[in-house]
Specification:
It comes from Hyphomicrobium nitrativorans NL23. The protein has one domain (2-58). Helix 1 (2-21) runs antiparallel to helix 2 (24-58). It has helices at residues 2-21, 24-58. The protein is rod-shaped, with a radius of gyration of 16 Å. The chain is mainly alpha-helical and 59 residues long.
Amino acid sequence: MGNLLHWAVVFLVVALVAAFLGFGGVAGTAMEGARLLFWVAIVFLVVSLVLGLIRRGAG
């Protein structure tokens, strides 16, 4: 999951640089990619926590 967070940060940095330079289309695309990867990472985190709690309770 660390890899997903890495790519989310990369897309965020690209979006911020593009926004600073005034390239609206590139900034919007990069921000959408960062947002998507962020939410995917959050879903994986929640699933991992729930499965960990279930396994701890069963063991």
